[in-house]
Amino acid sequence: MTPLFELQGVTKTFARPEDAVARLRARLAGQPAARRVTVLHETDLAVAPGEVLGLVGESGCGKSTLGRVAAGLHAPDTGRRLWDGADVAAMPPAQERATALGIQMIFQDPHASLNPRRRVGDAIGEAAGVHGLLEGASQADFAAELLRQVGLDPAMADRFPHQFSGGQRARIGIARALAVQPRFLVCDESVAALDVSVQAQVLNLFMDLRERKGLTYLFISHDLSVVHHLADRVAVMYLGRLVEVAPTAELFREPAHPYTRALLDSVPRLDAGNTVFQPLKGEIASPLAPPSGCAFHPRCPHAMAVCREQQPALQPVAAGRFAACHLVPACGTVPSTDSQSAP
Amino acid sequence: MSEPLLEVQGLSTHFDVRGGTVRAVDGVSFSLGRGEVLGLVGESGSGKSQTGYSIMGLVDPPGKVVAGSIRFEGRELVGLPSEQLRALRGNRMAMIFQDPMMTLNPVLRIGTQMAEAVLAHRKVGRARALEEAHHALERVGIPSAGERLRSYPHQLSGGMRQRVVIAIALLNSPKLFIADEPTTALDVTIQGQILYEMQKLTRETGASLIWITHDLAVVAALAQRICVMHKGKIVEQGDVDQVLRAPVHPYTRGLMDSIPSRNPRGQRLRTMPAFEAP
Amino acid sequence: MSATAETPLRRLWSEFTASRLACAGLAVTALIVLVAVLAPWISPQNPYDLQQLSVLDARLPPGTRTAEGVRYWLGTDDQGRDMLSAIFYGLRISMMVGLLCTAIAAVVGTALGLAAAWFGGAIDAFIMRLADTQLAFPSILIALIFLALFGKGADKIVLALVLVQWTYYARTVRGSALVELRKEYVEAARGLQLPRARILFAHILPNCLPPLLVVATVQVAIAIGLEATLSFLGLGLPVTEPSLGLLISNGYGYMLSGNYWISFFPGVALLVAVLAINTVADQLADVLNPRLKR
Amino acid sequence: AELKLAIATDVTSMDPQYANIAGNVQVSRHMFESLADLDADGRLVPRLAESWRRTEASVWEFKLRPNVKFHDGSTLTAEDVVYSVGRPATLTSSPATLNGFLKDITKAEALDANTVRFTTATPLAVLPNYLAMVPIVSKHATQGLKPEDFETGKGMVGTGPYRFGKFLRSDRIEMTRNEAYWGKKPHFDKVTIRIMPNNPARTAALLSGEVDAIAVVPTADVARIKQNPNITFYTKPLARHTFWTLNQASDALPQAFDHDGKPLTSNPFKDVRVRKAFSKAIDREAIGSRVMDGLGVPTQNPVPATMFGYNPDLAPEKYDLEGAKKLMAEAGLPNCFKLSIFARSDSHPTDSAQAQAVGQMLSRLGCKVSVEVVPTSVFFTRGNKLELPMLLLATGVDGGDLGVTLEYLFSNPTNNPFRKVNMQTYDSPAFWKPLREALALNDEQVRERKYRDTTRVLRDEVGVIPTELMVGTWAARKGVVLTPRVDERTYAFEASGN
Amino acid sequence: MVLFLLRRLGQSILVLWLMSVIVFAGIYLVGDPASMMIPDSVTPEMRAQMMSALGLDKPALAQYLDFAGRAVHGDMGKSFATGLPVSTLIASRLTATMELAVAATLIAIVVGLPLGLVAGRWPETVAGRALTFLSSLGFSLPTFWLGLMLIMVFSVHLGWLPSNGRGPTTEWLGLQVSFLSWQGLRHLLLPALNLALFNAAMVLRLARSATREALLTDYVKFARAKGIGNARLMGVHVLKNILIPIVTVVGINFGGIIAFSVVTETIFGWPGMGKLLIDSINALDRPVVLGYLMFVVVIYLLINLVVDLLYSWLDPRITLSARAS
Ligand SMILES: Nc1ncnc2c1ncn2[C@@H]1O[C@H](COP(=O)(O)OP(=O)(O)OP(=O)(O)O)[C@@H](O)[C@H]1O
Ligand SMILES: Nc1ncnc2c1ncn2[C@@H]1O[C@H](COP(=O)(O)OP(=O)(O)OP(=O)(O)O)[C@@H](O)[C@H]1O
Ligand SMILES: [Mg+2]
Ligand SMILES: [Mg+2]
């Protein structure tokens, strides 16, 4: 089955933060202008129609960047985006636009992503109006309905973004993305700002939409319980690379990558009572100074000599499971031969 | 524990908007002892952030603290002259805001924004302030701190910005620390690091925390007491274990029921009967 | 909570009129526009009709009554024009020129500035270098060339002034738009596949509006002044049909020799007009700023 | 004592022979002198030449004043004069060249150290007047210099009462007294001439004491200056008058229409009655007193009464609207017609006001007048192409001789192949005959009579419509005494003080 | 960055060429310099000689090519009216002009910016309203009017400051400057004020409106949460965020003062370049107008280059390189 959406070998770099002195010195020393950071390395990712792919990973590892590339907001430096197996960049303009409309992103920072001078009713209804998706309703009614769906009072449609609380703004962002009836939704921390009851409401909405309309999700989140609840598969990212991809239940039951394990171990538990937290052990990796070999090795309890030198590749490790760790084959999990879908 | 660090009594913060008044905070009372951690949870839009702003004296117009008193270290903050309030802010009490992208000045380097927080309250050299900033960044788990000091906010990920904001608040070792959803953008390992730092802060300096969050598990792990807000009012407050184990108010109960891990995976989550927004 | 039956325009109006100062400004602006429009019907004299003028009545002080019983409330100028009528008619020209130039230049300049910021690259370079060229081109030379090519006329003056002024808007808008374009809400709008024009004009433009409004109100005054300068140099409108600015220029030589009214009253009229327009614009900026709204 | 004098015209070059324009001449005459000169009333007087005489019809001999020293100590010789007279022809890029005055000289020779002989192509009575326009420079000091070299003081070696000090373009010229001057020693030992074209600024500079004297008091400030007890105000009728020229060149009068907007079938200005009517319709008194604030005197003569060629019989045309209407009716144009009249925006400050006033007056005649005030560049470019129907001009009298000016004004290619088109399209044998004769004559009295004949014809045929004789104004702080001049110049060496 | 500058240079050359064509054609259309320049009293031979000396005898295209050929080598030709090389003419006035422009712009910024911040910080107070009102006065008063008033008050009535000219100059780096001596400064003050007032008013208004916006942002609120003092809050956080439109407008106006401040220059007798241009246009002194305007384009290209560089310094999100859309 062709995936609905696929990223192939996507790389993304940014300019390095530098001060003027450093820049001048670099120039005088005749260094080439390649002072850039790579935040996304040769990443492949595929999402099947109707699937919810959870994306978790360390803060700053490039999840949002990946999400933006997927949503077509950042042009990747290398690599391709495929939609229904076709290269988006090679599509005729009209089709490209339609595809782009079908891929929506809910931004991590709802405040910044809302135009401060537009009333939220407009913000939500505008695109639908423009693309003729109002289905007979007036734009105001349409926006009101969406507001209701995300648990907001439709009377608030008249307000400006700054008049809302953080969670309310997050919901406006969700409503805006849903308004254009996307087929693929990139949710970047979309429910993090919501209290659990509203969060539940929104998650239910997401699940409904998936059932009714086959909506597909790339669900970026730090909240592992939400990911666990919602996602079919989970991709784990570390410093610009996918380090593990696995069906959700399996991943949570038996994480393959040491980072995944560290993540699952750090989840605070409601019933544990007051806990004494421990500082992180090992150095946190930075894209500005990426460690040699496996990026996780400075923090990895199992790091070996090879980890310091060699970058492990993302390999199939079991049916439908992939991991990038030198340890994994040694863990005794036999690579399966009949893996049906690419990561 | 003689006198509480912070004593909030009947605090009401209202916004006059066209066609009515939004009672964002409506008669909130609680007190916070020294070294105590208070978890503030509640519905989205229930007034948690505004409570924090009210304490800091930073409510945006047209919002106004219309009633109540806020006593901090024995001093009444409502009506305090702005210069005295300024001297307290960022020094004796600090707050981190909910939206990390918008809270950092987009045109100033991280280092500048951190150093000035030091310089505003202490007579030290700029180099020394930057050094402290560097250290604070490392405490919140930001690698390559030196280079990050030279970054601009837009060059950081959401979680990094959030950590920068936390680091700024930590700089002057405040006595009262109001954190508005400080770890939402952080993965659990980094969150652990932050929580570790917070615990250290309370332990070592006797600082008190107001921890606004939606993550009940974090509250359970960190806080001694909890306040549950709904529509501008505190509907339930008490000892964390008690409240979370045996919630009394129906809203709190509904909240607990909605937690995904308490629901069968992949099924519809339990929600509360519509609580219309304020 | 918020009134439902209110149309956006209604709301704008009621927000606008919330300030008493702004109401006054609007009233004065309206009055000025009214006077300008009705000048031919309410003026005691047609100051453009040479036959009605007499140099023998030149420079009469305010309030003078002539032998024929004509009362010059604000005195007369050096051609024997009734100042009151001249100011009414002058307002007509000056307001027309000032507002028209500003409107056209603002529209053209804003569109070009937005385009430059949005497209970047070659288009940006082209528009901005065009602006550089234009900036270096003095209005007097433009007017002189127009005069040589097409002869005199209000339309040519307006065109010449628009040519001079669009650059201000273009550069101001571009500067602000460059900042706005980097903001996430623009990315969001792009992601929603909104038409380019819509993003530019409905999303980015309103956020560039505050400096633009300031520039526009200042440019109204500048346009009025430039028109006067050009007319004074013989490159603008006929000297027998003086605008407000030209009246001031003509009279300013007399300012110190006691015949203050020739320059003073038109000056006051111009001042009041500019102040009123500024007040209106200030309030407009406030009304359009959602953060100042309730 | 130092004199600080503000003048109204800009100075384009320090080279005294580069351009014959008011500002340059005004300044250079402090340092350079000519053979003959004009006194304050515009009469010809000797300067570097003691005397001159006509030895033949076309030959003039000038005797130089002996022992005149240049600023560098060398003595003025006939060689310098011959050189100076030849030099303007080499300054080819000069605007407003002096060559107009020298082109008739076919030969200039030094007979001895103090005698110069000029031979002209045709008999030329006004050669001394012409030569009064030409400053004499030192041959050895200026040879090989380009006009721009003079800026720094190189070549600024004259015989005049002041020595060059410093020139700051568009700002000031500083000079010191020439202690070795042959003539009367000037009162002030240091002179700064400030260039202040802006009218109110000049007044302000005088009032604030920044300068001691100003030339050209702005019309609007006259009243105020007159009242000031610390300031002396001077006036003098100038050898400069304003007049309207009426386009009589072709049968179709440009930019004139009948009242229905159709072009006119014939040129009404070819009809002397129309010209006369226009002249009568203009209220010169009103213009002089109201528009020019008394600084204009109605005139029919191009020169003031003190000057050579003045015709006492010619009274200014009286304002007579009825008479004008009658004439128009006789000419078959009882309702006049539509036309544009033109004036310059950047010449005399009252030009625009005068044009508007005349517009008013003509409209009383039934004409539909539109008054167009345009910059000089446009004015002359279009005027030379004879595209303008009626325009306001002003002219001074060069070299103190009326005939020269009249010839210059009324020449056009048909009557003088040397002259290019000019805007005076009036052309009449009755006018030219006495004028031509006079220009060749030696006898001053006969010549003056012939000039009077010429101006009478001009009046009778209404070739142009003269309106006002302009009155020059000066002001100085008490204690500084100026000598007002008909040529509107202000000389520091003619000023005195205490 | 280097690439950016190179590209800019290439564009500038194109702009210069474009400008030269427009100006040349423009003046050619306006009128015939010969009609202004050559008196009727000369002989046809003299006339022909002068025409060829001025280069006016050739067809327009040839004249343009002549000019362009020389201009490429940096020779802008000689003025018709004064006979001086255009470069000399411009250079002789450049220092005076630059001095005036810099002084006026500095005054405008030093006065306008802080007052604008104040007016924006306390918009509802009497001071805030008064400043706003006064700033409107600042640009509704015609320059010549204001200049005259300044002279009347400060020179004539109070007698504090000279009304006219540049006064004694001091030599500085081989240039004649006013600002180094007390006398020179006194001469500089009034014209600089006259030019500055308008700009100060504009800067004030721009700063005021932008400050009002900036004060409402979350980052200002957060800065206040940090306990930052008012001075730093306004002077750093707010200021750096509001400068882009101000820099834009000040840049344009700075160029305008350099090139076109005729009115002030004439009223105060300041020997600057603006008057040179007007005189040359009036006299159809084509070499000067051409050379002058080419020079002004260069000035504007430089100013706007600096402004664009400032943009990327003021807001790091703006990049200099071509942007993708
Ligand atoms: N400027 C304003 N004008 C009107 N209402 C406002 C304004 N700012 C906030 N509110 C309202 O005040 C209420 C409380 O907001 P607050 O930000 O305190 O909520 P919160 O509890 O922090 O919610 P969240 O968890 O979503 O951040 C909300 O209902 C919001 O809509
Ligand atoms: N415009 C930019 N310029 C330079 N670096 C950038 C830019 N945008 C992002 N980065 C860098 O890219 C890396 C990944 O950022 P990204 O926002 O994708 O992280 P993330 O995984 O979403 O983190 P978080 O969970 O904290 O939101 C970070 O190191 C960040 O500093
Ligand atoms: Mg992110
Ligand atoms: Mg909140």
UniProtKB/TrEMBL annotation, chain A:
Pfam families: ABC_tran, oligo_HPY. Residues 15-264 form the ABC transporter domain. One of its GO terms (biological process) is peptide transport. Keywords: ATP-binding, Cell membrane, Membrane, Nucleotide-binding, Transport. InterPro entries: AAA+_ATPase, ABC_transp_ATP-bind, ABC_transporter-like_ATP-bd, ABC_transporter-like_CS, Oligopep_ABC_C, P-loop_NTPase. SUPFAM superfamilies: P-loop containing nucleoside triphosphate hydrolases. It comes from the Bacteria. GO terms for molecular function: ATP binding; ATP hydrolysis activity. The keyword 4Fe-4S does not apply. PANTHER family: D,D-DIPEPTIDE TRANSPORT ATP-BINDING PROTEIN DDPF-RELATED, TRANSPORT ATP-BINDING PROTEIN. Belongs to the ABC transporter superfamily. This is ATP-binding cassette domain-containing protein. It comes from Ramlibacter agri.
From TrEMBL, chain B:
The keyword Nucleotide-binding applies. It comes from the Bacteria. GO terms for biological process: peptide transport; transmembrane transport. Residues 6-256 form the ABC transporter domain. SUPFAM superfamilies: P-loop containing nucleoside triphosphate hydrolases. One of its GO terms (molecular function) is ATP hydrolysis activity. Residues 259-278 are annotated as: Disordered. PROSITE patterns: ABC_TRANSPORTER_1, ABC_TRANSPORTER_2. It is found in: Cell inner membrane. The keyword Cell membrane applies. It is a peripheral membrane protein. InterPro entries: AAA+_ATPase, ABC_Ni/Peptide_Import, ABC_transporter-like_ATP-bd, ABC_transporter-like_CS, Oligopep_ABC_C, P-loop_NTPase. It holds the Pfam family oligo_HPY. GO terms for cellular component: plasma membrane. Keywords: ATP-binding, Cell membrane, Membrane, Nucleotide-binding, Transport. Belongs to the ABC transporter superfamily. This is ABC transporter ATP-binding protein.
UniProtKB/TrEMBL annotation, chain C:
GO terms for biological process: transmembrane transport. Pfam families: BPD_transp_1, OppC_N. It is a multi-pass membrane protein. It comes from the Bacteria. One of its GO terms (cellular component) is plasma membrane. InterPro entries: BP-dependent_transpt_permease (IPR050366), MetI-like (IPR000515), MetI-like_sf (IPR035906), OppC_N (IPR025966). The chain crosses the membrane at residues 21-42, 93-123, 200-224, 230-248, 260-281. Coiled coil: none annotated. It is found in: Cell membrane. Its main location: membrane. Keywords: Cell membrane, Membrane, Transmembrane, Transmembrane helix, Transport. Gene3D superfamilies: MetI-like (1.10.3720.10). Residues 91-281 form the ABC transmembrane type-1 domain. Belongs to the binding-protein-dependent transport system permease family. This is ABC transporter permease. The lineage of its organism: Bacteria, Pseudomonadati, Pseudomonadota, Betaproteobacteria, Burkholderiales.
TrEMBL record, chain E:
One of its GO terms (cellular component) is plasma membrane. It is a multi-pass membrane protein. It is found in: Cell membrane. GO terms for biological process: transmembrane transport. PROSITE patterns: ABC_TM1 (PS50928). Its main location: membrane. Residues 94-311 form the ABC transmembrane type-1 domain. The chain crosses the membrane at residues 12-31, 100-119, 131-154, 188-207, 242-270, 290-314. InterPro entries: BPD_transp_1_N, MetI-like, MetI-like_sf. The keyword Transmembrane helix applies. Keywords: Cell membrane, Membrane, Transmembrane, Transmembrane helix, Transport. Belongs to the binding-protein-dependent transport system permease family. PANTHER family: ABC TRANSPORTER PERMEASE PROTEIN, DIPEPTIDE TRANSPORT SYSTEM PERMEASE PROTEIN DPPB-RELATED. This is ABC transporter permease. It comes from Ramlibacter agri.
